[in-house]
Amino acid sequence: MKVGKGDPNRTFGRWAAAADRGYYRPMQLNSPRYLLSSIPFVAMLAIALGSVVFSCATSPSGGGRAKPFYINVGDDGLGRFHTVQAFAEVDEVTAIDLGDRSRRRVLSPGQWRYDSAAAELVLALPPPYARTVLHVEGTPERPARFVLANLDPGEEPLVAVSGRLAIEGFDYSFDRAASNIVFRDDFDPEAASYLISYRTPFGINSIGESDPKNPDAYAYLEAKHYTDSFAERRRESGEDYFLDPARFVDGKPAVVRRAFTEEERKAAEAPIPVMKSRIKVSDRAISAEVGFDARTPKSISSGTRGKKFEAGGKFIEESAEGGRLRRVVSEFYSPAGAEAGADFLSLRFGPGEISPVAREDERLVIERRNLEVDGISVLYERVWGIRSDPSPEAGPGAAPEPAAIASLSWKEKDLSFEVSSSDELRDWGESLARSLIAYRRGSR
Questions:
Q1: Range list of H helices, 148-268
Q2: Spatial separation of the C-alpha atoms in residues 129 and 232, rounded to whole Å
Q3: Using an 8 Å Cβ cutoff, are 282 and 314 in contact?
Q4: Edge-to-edge strand list for the sheet holding 87-97
Q5: List of long-range contacts for 384-387, beta carbons under 8 Å, 24+ apart
Q6: CA atoms of 385 and 343, how far apart (whole Å)
Q7: Are 183 and 142 in contact (CB under 8 A)?
Q8: Residues 6+ apart with CB under 8 A from 359
Q9: What is the rounded average pLDDT of the residues 280-289?
Q10: 216-242 per-position pLDDT tens digit
Q11: CA distance 419 to 59
């Protein structure tokens, strides 16, 4: 993922924007449809837990020398740091604190070693920060080799180059036993667009560089690939995890694995929306593209809580409803200074209806009330949901966990809005809803 002249502080592009929510697993409600309709698909890509590759970059140098190259990588939830793209040689490793990027330290060679076969950076001591990203500089292997850590058994990765599907045996080779992808000798991923995306027991990993001439090409390929992949897996198993509203354990609804009903099966096999990155595009340009007012505040703050949440850029979610194209704008707000790996607030809005999150069973509702915000009625809900993937600590076969979700939804003329978050961030979710309503009214 190319981001510039070797600066680990740069804001990352399309694929990093997905990965930088890597530690926050999206949550689904009792219906499998919730994961597809109420949480944008980028949040599904966001569960890149094995490892989380935030970015890689190159910058040209003269004299025919090898290009300087770096990768920023987070741990996989089990304390391992996989660079995914393999290095021939690692020159320097810098530890960066995700919570405060001004905190960093260059690690001495005795504090790390690089396992090129596994594309893993192994630390001799525990990471210096609670949430550590490693900035790894060196020379990439040629031909370019990628190690797909924690690849699901039987998983066929999505591989694309130059805006099209790549062809195994022509563009690349795939060693399934070693989970290695090796590109053709004359393909330089630091100078061309490409995408590698694959499932793990803990979510989806993606690494790549979008095509500047056709930046949405890979969004369509992803949507098609994972629509087919998820549908096939559900057909094969015929089962999934659901909440049992009739049984609570330690104050939380039980999670059970059971067969789909016919309605649930159809919902689970619905096409996944196409998520188009508009990270660096102005609100005015996005408004012109989607046909409605897409203005949102760049940040929200609260003097009482003493911190600020910042917008990370927008995505346009495209789906088909009733034979017509529907566009919805989504955006994520993360704590200021937390480049990645933090809990976030999710904003989603567009024409038509956005259903209340707690529509399945009233026994899963924790709290429901109406708020009046500048004359607008806002529905405030706290409900039980399911984290969509097990944590790495629990192992790949573990059942997902129940989790409380907070949501605020309202209408503004012909547009519907929804802010959702983990229950721990519900006060910040309310702050975002209030700030957004005031911002849109004040900037007319």
A1: 217-237, 262-268
A2: 40
A3: no
A4: 52-58, 69-74, 132-140, 87-97, 100-107
A5: 384/29, 384/243, 384/252, 384/253, 385/27, 385/28, 385/29, 385/30, 385/34, 385/243, 385/357, 386/27, 386/28, 386/29, 386/30, 386/241, 386/242, 386/243, 386/255, 387/25, 387/26, 387/27
A6: 16
A7: no
A8: 29, 31
A9: 96
A10: 999 999 999 999 988 888 888 888 888
A11: 39
Please, which pLDDT band fits residue 392 given cuts at 50, 70 and 90?
A: low
Buried-exposed string 336-353: b where 16+ CB fall within 10 A, e elsewhere: eebbbbbebbbbbbbeee
Q: Please state, in angstroms and rounded to a whole number, the distance separating the CA atoms of residues 116 and 303.
A: 48
Q: Strand ranges (DSSP E) for 124-225? A: 132-140, 145-147, 158-161, 164-165, 172-175, 180-183, 194-200, 203-209
Q: Which long-range contacts (CB under 8 A, 24 or more apart) does 161-164 make?
A: 161/187, 161/192, 161/193, 161/194, 161/195, 162/192, 162/193, 162/194, 162/211, 163/193, 163/211, 163/213, 163/214, 163/217, 163/218, 164/217
402-412/415-422 β-pairing: antiparallel
Question: ω before 109 within 30° of 0 (cis)?
Answer: no
Give bridge partners of residue 382 from the DSSP assignment: 367, 406
Q: How far apart are CA 31 and CA 355, in angstroms?
A: 13
Distances (CA, A) of 69 to 52, 80, 149: 18, 21, 21
Residues 438 and 431: their CA atoms lie apart, in Å, by 11
Percent of the chain, pLDDT > 70?
77
Is a pLDDT exceeding 80 seen at residue 208?
A: yes
For residue 95, the surrounding DSSP H or E stretch is strand 87-97
